[in-house]
């Protein structure tokens, strides 16, 4: 049985004061709520603060990125070991904004996945196609290629990796894929993981949907057999809104 996982990705939003207020609002709303794993991924500058706020609760902390070396002359980068020190359990890797805006390719993402696993950080590996790729009937091909390259020569336990399917055309646009679209691709991802590894692992890995997820549509996505949770962007920036998504049942 795969435990549902709901992840808040704040992206480049919230200073320390706003982050503290958010954490203090979220904790009582979710206190005692069980059956769903919750992860909050703030900017690097708020990680230590949020770790202090969430300490003793069931809410876990994640980062939005990392560098693949543990230390060294890499100005402006954050190492996996630093994220562990800050209290992180998860890290988002391969997000479409990193791929498209920052120019990260699959070789870079592969190195980052390896580095995360080396310190027992759980990667939330993002894959997904653009609108043009979907319209050209290449969606499966693109996602398959991303998975192949991003996981090249990598072994992991099922609980050590999360996949997030994020159709690029549905991120921050207000246009979301239908639950049928999400199930079709996430089902394909699970079947491809079985080919890359084995069926037991594929059945155990949690696969999330990400793309304009909100309170109004989360239950529909979560009703699909292969959708195990959500990677939430804009709708995660308000504690009440995010809590509403977490409490989808």
Please explain how this structure is put together.
This protein has a single domain (5-246), classed as Aldolase class I (TIM Barrel, Alpha-Beta Barrel), CATH 3.20.20. It is α/β, with parallel strands linked by helices and 249 residues long. The two termini are 16 Å apart. The protein has eleven helices and eight strands.
Category by helix and strand content: alpha/beta
In CATH terms, the superfamily is Aldolase class I
- Count the E strands: 8
Could you name the ranges where pLDDT drops below 50 across 5 or more consecutive residues? none
The percent range for helix content is 40-55%
Strand content: 5-15%
Number of helices: 11
Mean pLDDT: 96
